[in-house]
Here is the input.
Amino acid sequence: MKTVASFTIGYRQVLDQDGRVVDALPAFAADPNVLVDLYRRMSFTRVFDGKAVALQRTGKLGTYASCLGHEAAHIAIGVAMQPEDVFCPMYREYGAQFVRGVKPRHVLMYWGGDERGNDFTGPKHDLPWCVPIATQCLHAAGAALAFKLRHEPRVAVSVVGDGGTSKTDFYAAVNCAGAYTLPYIGVIVNNQWAISVPRSAQTGAETLAQKGLAGGLHSVQVDGNDVIAMLAVMQEAVARARRGGGGTVVEAVTYRLSDHTTADDARRYRPDDEVKQAWDREPMRRLRRYLEALGVWDEAREQAWKEQCGREVDIEVNAYLETRSQPIESIFDYLYAEAPHDIAAQRAEAMAWEEGRRHG
Amino acid sequence: MAEITLIEAVTQALAYEIAHDPSVVVLGEDVGVNGGVFRATAGLHARFGSERILDTPLDETTIAGLAVGMAFQGMKPVAEAQFDGFIYPMMDHIVCHAARMRTRTRGRLHCPMVLRAPWGGGIRAPEHHSEAPEALFAHIPGLRVVIPSSPARAYGLLLAAIRDPDPVIFFEPKRIYRQYKEEVPDDGEALPLDVCFVLRDGADVTLVTWGAHVKETLEAADALAQEGIGAEVIDVATVKPLDFDTIRESVKKTGRCVIVHEAARTGGIGAEIAAQLAEKAMFDLVAPVERVTGYDTPMPLFRLEMKYLPSRDRIVAAAKKTLAYR
Here is the structure.
């Protein structure tokens, strides 16, 4: 039998878990300032995340999906994209969104039960958080199709989890991105757990990246805890998509160090040892070691930066806590461009009821 | 001016809007070179090319998801579900995204898309090709649901649907795609998406329907007229939002209402109309509201489909039942 097609999946890692350089550094990594900037952004995201979890635990935030451990993957996505590109997140890609200009207060408003969180700062054409799993992959593909049809050199990026790659929508996005040669990048942030179901129970595929091959996309696996490798891979994928070279599936291998959300208790289903080992591979430590070896970071700078992050996050938290709920009519006011008569009538009914309660 | 069928009116409206609005793109299975399995997009690919008329991979989820993605980026996709029975995989994208994009982003993004589908039974089609799922979509806040019943209304309502800045589900009654022709000026004039059309005046009973059953309902009105009974016939056309005012005005006059639809009865649009009559026109009614609908069963295969669908005689019988009350 002859071979009619053959494939390989490459794995990219530059910094190993202890911060040693194990592969050729990409050009951007020659500038320590770039790396310090990446580190600072990752650190800010982690400080924010810890604060958000604390807010939930003290009853000041609804259920919150932590991004602990995903900082390298998320920041690299944000840094690789241009403002005119479109980002279609799932629901914990705050690091990428902060790079794009979304303010932490909007993340908090969303998880704090207020739709105005979805009307965030940053690119007005980015999608809001997407709770139905993997549907955002097709929306990114659709955005990419719009760019292609309008001959705009823009790129659409979606993020999905390891569990999300089991969904029809993920396969569909990969398939049509290949069929139409779309400027689409499907990032799989493989954090090993889809709530309580491990990666091994999700699919028989050896890698998740190889799912991209089925649709004819460039497909690569990367150490998602290594921001240098992750950014290199993302930059290549973005550049290729922008010049019309087609889409890419990037599998970023990382680990969900937190519970799935604050409503979850991961101790019920995963061994402590596994989590302990994952902490050895987490993205901050290795980069810090590397930066310290370069002599561009140290404990004093670490402390100063964390304090600054804390101050900035506090400002955002206060801004969130100071927002008042929208009035009831707001649920009607954005349903259609112009309210049909039935919606206008229900709006009046709701307002009259609320008004009556105030006076009655 | 040539007379055209309902499906030719669909094609005419698509062509008009593609020619006049560069953001309009048609996508679906076999809509390109083939011109659609019913020929709704016949000639459009040759005229407008493959950047305006897109054949998609064979996956309804893809079609709906791409349409949402294109729409929130400022295009106006007109997506086609090849048959009503294939629309269910699209629900996630329509319900969770298209319908609520505007409201959940507080107006930052919206989805100006149309989902067209041949709709309803009566053409001896295979299984899953004869469904009437309008109530499923009418229940979803943020959508409009439109079902034309004549070539002229198909043209004007489809133009309105494409121009509407919010998502519209546009069901085309396939049984009357080629039932008759009428003159439809290609003038780009849209019809309103929030009114019922009174097709026939009558003082004794109000017959409310939409889609292909406008035909049987008008025939029933003819039969009733033979017996001296004046039936007013209303084509709802846009089932969401529902123009209840027109129905109420008619019922004020007649005191009787028969609702005819081919979809299953429970939770159908007829139930909504009956509920609103009970809420707002209780004391105008002199008889209980009658519903003549498909049964609460799956649409049978075609040997029995005409027994499932409301017939002229069932409509006449229901009308007479209301007339027993004085």
About this structure: Chain A has two domains: 10-326, 328-360. Residues 10-326 of chain A form a domain with the Rossmann fold fold (CATH 3.40.50.970). The first strand of chain A starts at residue 10 and ends at 12. The mean pLDDT of chain A is 97.
